Amino acid sequence: MSNHSSAGTVHASPPKFTDKKYLVTLVFVTSLFMFWGIAITMGDVLNKHFQKVLSLTKTQSAFVQFAIFGAYFIMGIPAGLFMKRFGYKSGVLLGLSLFALGSFLFVPAASTASFPFFGIALFILGCGLATLETVAHPFVASLGDQRTSDQRINFAQAFNALGAILGPAIGGFFLFRDHIEGSTDLTSVRNLYIAIGSVIALIALAFSFVKVPALIDPHAADVDPDAVNVDSEPGKTLFQHRHFVWAVIAQFFNVAAQGGTWAFFINYGHEKMGFSDAVAANYMIGFMALMLAGRFVGTFLMRFIAPHTLLAIFAFSNIVMCLIIAQAWGWPSFIALMMLNFFFSIMFPTIFSLGLKNLGPHTQQGSSFIAMGVAGGAFFPFLMGAVAETNVAHAYYLPIICYSVIFLFGYKFYKAH
């Protein structure tokens, strides 16, 4: 018998994840998500290591996060302008070059045992990370059909979570494994960042030879009018889109909570659970693995629960977790600390995507401003560090402020009118 489909029916093939011509480029760009994940979480291991080797207080060591995340605030807009002027590939090469340069500057910083010198190196490294993050999201989005751009970004973000797992594993292995109590030797720090700088420099060299096919920006002003990201209010300027403004605010507080929570995780394990620094760093690997698990679970749940609703649920859950952590009840509080990262998992990409919704030609500029919200991670660790000097558990009351803002964004202020 003949088939039963009518002659006039058109079976449109589903859009591809990417095209074969983009595959090599996609592999390179996706790897960037992993490398900046490694670098950021390794900064949290450095925070604790510098407290011991350079005799810093918790408030002073928070400058590690200030240097890295502060670079995002300084570099976000210049990186976006550089990308628009010279293209995605040049933006990636600039980011990798700054990343490698900052890593190599750890050599003279270690030789002089100068924390301010380390701060300069970390800031330059952070400028590289900020450039890569600003460029990589729209770069991945442009590597194929715009209808599957969200899939590619979520795929790449999974490697960012993998990098966040590898960062404390690598940092803990190199910095804590053979550390002698009371030692001020910085050789392990120097050798670790020589290795990192060398790997990043080789990746930059290899990527310089990759021929990137012609790309179409999925958020350009002249895209198909049936696209999902058409400006819903074309008469408005970027900052007249209320949901975008709230997304910038929510992202600031989101990364603020991340910066403080991650920076003092090892301190909490050491002071409240009695772990050695090496054991606490191993638990941090599981801490980051829960973020990866949360992204997979959150992505699945979004098939049944609206993203903004799930964001509000996860934010409220973290308010509860922070209350339990602050009580220092032993294992129940430590498990709550671990779960904090599970519920944190979906926040960055979900706030990002909700904030860019229906911005149309404003999308690329909006992306730069939301990325600048990462600067929240530069300031909040100082506040948590000041409280942690007295009681590291009580420092975890402070992120409740951040998660309350995120809850309000997910519950009420996400709407694009």
Automatic annotation (TrEMBL):
Pfam families: MFS_1. SUPFAM superfamilies: MFS general substrate transporter. One of its GO terms (cellular component) is plasma membrane. Residues 23-417 form the Major facilitator superfamily (MFS) profile domain. It is a multi-pass membrane protein. InterPro entries: MFS, MFS_dom, MFS_trans_sf, MFS_TsgA-like. This is L-fucose transporter. It comes from Dyadobacter fermentans (strain ATCC 700827 / DSM 18053 / CIP 107007 / KCTC 52180 / NS114).
